[in-house]
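This protein record is not my work; I was only asked to verify it. Take the sequence as given and treat only the tokens as open to question. I have pasted the whole thing underneath without changing anything:
***
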Amino acid sequence: MRSTLLLAFLIPAGMATGQVDLIKSLEGNQSEKAAEGFLFQPIVNLEALGIENQGASGTCWSYCTSSFLESEMIRQGKQPVDLSEMYTVRKVYEEKAVNYVRMHGSYSFGEGGALPDFVQVYGKYGAVPETAYQGLEYGSDINKHGELEAILKGMIEAVVSNPNKQLTPVWKEAVNRVLDVYLGDNPKEFEYQGKKYTPETFAEEVVGLKANDYVQISSFASNELYKPFIMMVPDNWAYGQTYNVQLDDLTDIIDAALQKGFSVAWAADVSEKYFSWKNGVAFVPEKEYAAMTDEERAAMFKGPKPERIITPEIRQEAYDNYTTTDDHGMHIIGLVKDQTGKEWYKVKNSWGESNDHKGYLYVSKNYVRYKSIAILMHKDGVPKDIRKKLDI
């Protein structure tokens, strides 16, 4: 997922054109005084650290999963740490560059990533607190990765072109030097609360989570049920494994997890006209946006509306025809109900606090059924009957 928002949210500025277009497409998705039309009453409200802003970088995947792991620390009774998103981003840039060259350029390279990336880096390279690695060495107080990404891409494309007829042994070091200049030297050792750590010892002694405990789950009619598969999205550069469940299982799993105190990382399409960042609401109206009158469009977020019924076939069709795309990663931390009794998920975003709900969103279950790419969670949060089917 590659969302960006220099709106005080997350991706694109100087970023990829697709990111800029995505943000612009969201600017008109709002209704006046929408906050007055929805009365949300909390059912489950799990703890999380404060709202952050990914700036002009396509790194939502790192922000949402770092927030998720911070909440996992809270759930397990640990003192939560504000984890460095940019340490993980740096390690992913390094690994992507190696894979890009090994694949002779036939490979995805850029700022985007998938939910399992943070957990994979955590298990392999450890973790670093935000105070030890901010990744802002280029004179900005927010992330701006457009120039960095372009330079890295140019470098590895030059390597792949193989002008020397044989690769030199120093090209990886050249990539690392660029990352040092833009993000900061690779943190081999740092101090936290008066004690020295390496990223590996910090992950083991302070964060204390086990990377193998986390699973990614989705629902696609094109894949065998209750079996693992490789998610076919460009930003799944590491070919992370996903478990396939029935469509109703997807929201049942999230509901059960929240009720037991487990939050959930969430990757989804946010390019629809019925996703409103400004109003902090996303749902699936009965009518397609193109078929609505001007009055219906203006009133879309003024209060609860009836929703379209989502089937596995509708969901699969949207994925196959590119109307559901891998846009953005967020963090589901709660469950609420509106004044009609309908339940919604409370979602923590990484676009700053500039919307009606100070950085949070309320997303209907139908929207999750329709527009989810995948969820990532602790396997113990999955209901026992589904865990048994998945053999996890």
In short: The domain at 17-390 is CATH 3.90.70.10 (Cathepsin B; Chain A). Residues 5-20 have pLDDT under 50 and may be disordered. Residues 85-102 form the longest helix (18 residues).
